[in-house]
């Protein structure tokens, strides 16, 4: 399968009603700008639609993006948005891990894939950043572990990747 067929297969399996279309993904007082990652070459899954309030997805991040980068890697980007002043790193870690676990079910086998978990937040304490850097806070995906990146709310996703 080529890139577009793989992405279309993911869209079909997840259900188009659970996808986000647009370039400004927002939750509360935090957002990220998705421009720079082509709308035609990405799938953005809104996990709040997949797991409505009160269902099993309580430890899910806000969204997961699937796309192919310039070197043909299949990239999975779990994104958590925190617009408050006091970010709880352990909660964000669990939500990003949940998003990566969800994404693994839709990641094609036999294709080199990488994970880029990102926490967008208004502000975060030094202690919470240290917590994110610990080995146990890394997000497992495809037999590897990936460190969580942080970025300020409103930042362009393409600049963070």
Care to describe what's here?
The strands form three sheets. Strands 3, 4, 5, 6, 7 and 10 form a six-stranded mixed β-sheet that branches. A two-stranded antiparallel ribbon has the order 1-2. With 161 residues, it is an alpha/beta fold. 27% of the residues lie in helices and 28% in strands. It has one domain.
Secondary structure layout plus pairing:
Blueprint: H1 3-14, E1 24-27, E2 30-33, E3 42-46, H2 47-50, E4 63-68, E5 74-82, H3 89-104, E6 113-115, E7 118-121, H4 126-133, E8 139-141, E9 144-146, E10 149-152, H5 157-160
Parallel strand pairs: 5-6, 5-7, 7-10
Antiparallel strand pairs: 1-2, 3-4, 4-5, 8-9
Q: Tell me the radius of gyration.
A: 15 Å
Uncertain regions spanning at least 5 consecutive residues: none
Instruction: Tell me about the largest β-sheet.
Output: 6 strands, mixed
User: What order do the helices and strands follow?
Assistant: HEEEHEEHEEHEEEH
Number of E-state strands: 10
Count of domains: 1
Distance between the termini: 25 Å
How many helix segments? Answer: 5
Averaged pLDDT, please?
A: 93
Gross geometry: globular
Structural class: alpha/beta
Helical coverage, percent range: 25-40%
Q: State which percent range the strand residues make up.
A: 25-35%
């Amino acid at each position: 399968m080529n890139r577009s067929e793989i992405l279309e297969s993911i869209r079909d399996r997840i259900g188009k009603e659970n996808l986000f279309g647009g370039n400004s993904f927002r939750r509360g007082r935090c957002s990220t700008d998705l421009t720079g990652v082509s709308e035609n070459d990405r799938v953005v899954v809104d996990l709040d639609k997949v797991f409505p309030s009160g269902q099993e997805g309580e430890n899910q991040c806000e969204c997961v993006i699937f796309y192919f980068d310039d070197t043909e890697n299949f990239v999975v980007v779990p994104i958590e948005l925190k617009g408050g002043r006091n970010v709880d790193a352990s909660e964000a870690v669990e939500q990003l891990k949940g998003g990566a676990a969800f994404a693994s079910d839709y990641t094609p086998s036999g294709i080199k894939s990488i994970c880029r978990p990102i926490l967008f937040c208004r502000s975060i304490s030094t202690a919470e950043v240290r917590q994110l850097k610990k080995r146990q806070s890394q997000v497992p995906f495809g037999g590897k572990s990936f460190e969580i990146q942080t970025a300020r709310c409103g930042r362009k996703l393409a600049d963070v990747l």
